[in-house]
Amino acid sequence: MAEDAEKKAPAAQKRPKAPKPQVVGAKVSASAPKRTAGSAKGAAGSAGAKVKYRVNAAKAVSAQDREADKQSMGQVRKSLVFLGGVTVAYLAYLIFSGQMDVFLASLSQVDSSWMLRGVFCYVVYYIIGVSAYVLSVITDPRSPVGVRDLMSVEAAGVFFMNLTPNGMGAAPAQIYRLTRAGLSVGGAGALHSTRFIMYEAGEAIFAAIMLIFRLDYFLNSFGDFIIIGILLFVFKILECAVLFGICAYPKFFSSIGNWVLRFANKHGWVKDYDHWYQVVNNQINEFSDGFKSAAKNKGDLVGVLVLTLLQLGCLYALPWFVLNAFGKEADLITCLASGSMLELLTSAIPLPGGTGGAEGGFALLFGGMFGAQASAGFVLWRAIEYFLPTLCAAPLLGLRSTSGESINHRFKRYGARLRRLFSRGSGGKGSGGIKITFK
């Protein structure tokens, strides 16, 4: 009976084994079905195949991915308790320092329209992040990942980056959602690693550009203290260099990692040896292979990098909106440069949300701009840069695409519609329309 049932099962439910990192179940949605006479029945069958394709995509999620996602949620719960304590401590400081009256008076003077613009700026930040993921998969006609899947992935990056120490929970949470969408573990890791490297490179490039334009401002305003910011920038450059080095020479870095791992294990410093052994010997190679595969499409990488720079610009500009909300005159480039330095300081603190680095960095870099309203300015900046995005990202974590059609096919279909539309507008002459080509 089991054998007969298996023979009768639809082809969409049988997935070929993938010996190399590749899209799981890709053949089901590879192309639109050919239409023939009486294609209504075929269309119904095609729609059924797409639904079953999505069922199988969910089965691609490994137990390890699920466990990593659960661990990330466990870290989130601990972080919420920690941040609650930090909030109480901050309120206590305002009360006992006698600044509560100034704080409340400052908040009453806020121009809400500027705050709404700041919120919209962060929404643009999120949209650009999703677009960068879309650009990374749009050339693959077999990719099962849809736009809503990528919205969930980007939301997971925001949520877990904000609520886990040093953002450690972001990577496993994003890879989990990519495998849930239908990518193999190797394919999900490759896509995530490429996006991660481009984001890190974007941070370094943006900071370098801002230092070129505003180095004199930093030296005149903060003196020798700005050396700390410059050191953080140098560290970011070295981090990017190591990432690119791992991609280019994985065997060399694996040998170094194995030596360090053996040395640490010999002295009893490693708690989970098997996990770190797998990271050094397997994940480094997957990380390298994924980036090398993506690097073949240099145009896409450049496009992702440009989008990342625009995305970071939206994030770093948020203090400028808060300053204008208080009626302060502020230079946008100076705010971008200071915002870039502030994010470097925040990310250097291994606590949820960079607690400590965010407060100290804001007081240092923006305290003079806000004056007596610095405390209120910090709270509003933290609200639109941290707390509100975290709350809004939570409902988006469960988004999933259900059509089964790849983004590549969807854009080709829309391109064909545009070609027909412009052809009709030019009097039916194909040569007079706009030619849109998708490679």
From TrEMBL:
Q: Which UniProt keywords apply?
A: Cell membrane, Membrane, Transmembrane, Transmembrane helix
Pfam families attached to this UniProt entry: LPG_synthase_TM
According to the UniProt record, where is the region Disordered? 1-48
According to its UniProt record, where is this protein located? Cell membrane
Q: Is Cell membrane set as a keyword in this record?
A: yes
This protein's membrane topology, according to the annotation, is:
Multi-pass membrane protein
Q: Where are the transmembrane segments?
A: 80-96, 116-138, 196-213, 225-249, 301-322, 361-381
**Keyword Cell membrane annotated:** yes
Highest taxon of source: Bacteria
Q: Name the residue ranges with Low complexity bias.
A: 37-48
**Chief subcellular location:** membrane
Name of protein: Flippase-like domain-containing protein
List the source organism: Tractidigestivibacter montrealensis
The root-end lineage is: Bacteria, Bacillati, Actinomycetota, Coriobacteriia, Coriobacteriales
